[in-house]
Amino acid sequence: MRHKTGLKIRKKKESLFAARKRFCRFCVDKVKVIDYKDTRRLESFLTERGKMISSRFSGNCAKHQRCLAEAIKKARFISLIPYKR
User: Which of 7, 17, 59, 61 is the most exposed, having the fewest neighbouring CB atoms within 10 Å of its CB?
Assistant: First the structure.
């Protein structure tokens, strides 16, 4: 299909997955401080390779994403969480 200027019009691909509203888990649970010793919670925000999941995918707000990144870095430094897997 062409536009009146002669350029092709691209149709948006329909996504296979329904877009869902992401929410910050820490805001919902009203968590004041993210503890670096809570490795079970921190590992849910890491990939299987050990990388931190961005806020776009996790749904965290900017404030809690910064606190989460700091807690993960502290836990890595103390060897509670590995740098790589």
Answer: 17
